[in-house]
Every structure is written in C-alpha cells, then in structure tokens.
Amino acid sequence: MSKSLGNGIDPLKIIEQYGSDALRFTLSFLSVQGQDLNIDTKDFMFGAKFANKVFNASKFILSNLKGRLVLDSLEFDDIDKWLIARLNATVAVIDWSFENYKYNEATKAVYEFFWNDFCDWYIEISKINLCSDDFDLQNITISKLIFFLKESLLIMHPFIPFITEEIYSKVMSLKDILALKKYPEVTMQRDFGEECQQFNLFKDFIISIRTLRSEFNIVPNVKINVALKFGNTFQSEKYFRRNEYIAKKLINFDCIFYNENYENMIGVPNVNFESFADIRDFIDTDKELTKLSKQLEKYEKLKNVTLQKLGNQNFLSNAPDEIINFEKLKLEEFDSFIVRISNYISNLKKSSY
C-alpha cells in the first residue's frame, strides 16, 4: 500500500463491508512477525467466513435447545475428553504465542480448534446422539454442546470480540459479560493424553475410509463393509469397538471386521493399524488398475525430479531455506502418494483373482 499511489485500504470501508471482527481476525491471522503483509480487500472474506462459521455453529446448537434440558452436572466420555484436551492445548499455544508476540500463531490455533475440532468432528458426532430416541442422551448431548460452545466463545473472544459477546450475552441470555470473565488456563486436569491419542487413531481410520471412497468415486450413501487389521501391541481395540456406532454413521458401513475377512479388501496403511474397505462390487478393477498405474508413473517421475534437485549442491547452496524445505515437503508428499497407490494396486490385483 502506498499513499502516493492511492492504493491504501480504508479500514472503515472494510468494517462496513465485512465487519470489524473480520478485519481484526484476518489481520491477526496473516500478520507474521518481522514480515511485510501484502493484502487485498478480498482477503478479509477469510475473517468474514470464520465469523459466519461461529454464528452458524452457535445457531445450530441453540436451535436444538427446544424441548431439551441443560444439565448442570456432566460426566465426560472418550470424545469429550479428547475435545477438552484439544481445548487445553489450544490455550497453551495461545499463551505462548502472546508471550512471544506471534499473534498469527495464536489466531491459527483458535481457527483450527473451532473449525476442525469442534465443528468438523465434535458437532458432527453430537448430531448422532441428538437424533437418538433416548431423551436422556439428547439432554446430555445438548448440555455438553452448550458447555463447549461457552468455552470456545471465551478463547475466541480476543480475536472476534463482537460476535462472541453477542452470542454469549444476548443469544444465550447470559447475564454476565464475556469480556470480564477470566481467560482459560492450561491445567494438568485437562490433559487427557491417552484419550487424545486414541481418538486421533479413530479419526485416522474414518479419514482413511473416506479418502478411499473419494479416490474410487464411491458415493457416501452406498454402504460398504470395512475391516481393521492390527497387531498384538495395538491398545485401542476396545476404544474402537466402544465407539463403533460413530464410525458407522460417519463412513456408512454395513459390517466391520476386526483382524478378519480383510483379504479381498482394499487397504490403507495407518500408524499401528491398517484400514480396509470392500469396494469390489462398485468399481471396474481393470480400469482402476490402468488409472492407478498411470498415477504411479507420474508421481515416480515427480519424485525423481525432486530428488535430483535436492541432490544438486548448487541448488542447496544458493536456494533460500524456505524453498529447500518446500522441496523436501514435496518429496514426502510424493512418497506418501507412491506408497498409497502401490498398496491400492497390490490389493486390487489380489482381489481380482
């Protein structure tokens, strides 16, 4: 931006178009310490979308209060403890970021917690219980959603103060003021490390089956059979079985098998276990093998080009660190694609016999 060129951004116009929270959140998210910020007026749509996400998520939760009771005393289960641990970790990142003047890191942590953890996972899982015929379970679920919404509004308040205060004090009909409440602190009581680790494995399983569905163009409403293969050292089988009803809703399967009936399925390697899905009836195996072989050849060529670049001493001596790191990340990505595609090809060949 330059005064002489007249291409400066008027913050009042941004507030009028996108809102003050959008202005504040976008600048905080994009402003990296020690670097100039190149920004366009359209970039503030990012903050506006986040504020809209907060409003819509809150609206969904509050709309489900009708006919249900909010309980004062709650007992937290596996999924709740995972979200509490994520909330605790987010507060830790915010504290560290503020102490070190890295406001973009704090804003990123808030964004990832609310959008990814709370909305994409916790609310989606809660919808399963809200649709249950068990009225007591519905009351427990909505009470937990209200609890976590309050906690989320509190940690987001420094970043988007107006919409969080509006939701907290007016929409939720709470008499106290959010701005005067004590900010959450990191505590050991909220550090549910084991539950967090187990849920992350559970997420990996769901994501792997969803990815497999997407890559083979199998629509979500088609039911498939899935399987899990793991060794004797795998500690989360009970956790998976206990939360099987969640996976069934999120990835839409008929049956799930544990360490059996996976021989003719397509596998996806994960950390400490392997996910499988039976998709033979929904694909043309020969066409898929041809397509996958071409993809494998493509990524192997890209990998070789990247390896040659990283093996060039002139490149390593002259290129900026961020460019070198970017090439290394590309190499890891290509390796991941090659492993997954090779695994698909191997499984498809076995299942076609």
Give a brief rundown of this model.
By secondary structure, the chain is α+β, with helices and mostly antiparallel strands.
What does this entry look like structurally?
63% of the residues lie in helices and 7% in strands. It has 353 residues and is α+β, with helices and mostly antiparallel strands. It has 3 domains: 3-190, Isoleucyl-tRNA Synthetase, Domain 1 (Orthogonal Bundle); 193-282, hypothetical protein PF0899 fold, CATH 3.30.2320; 285-350, Helix Hairpins (Orthogonal Bundle). It has a 4-stranded mixed β-sheet. Helix 5 (103-130) runs antiparallel to helix 6 (135-156) and helix 6 (135-156) runs antiparallel to helix 7. GO terms for molecular function: ATP binding; valine-tRNA ligase activity. One of its GO terms (biological process) is valyl-tRNA aminoacylation. Residues 284-340 form the Valyl-tRNA synthetase tRNA-binding arm domain.
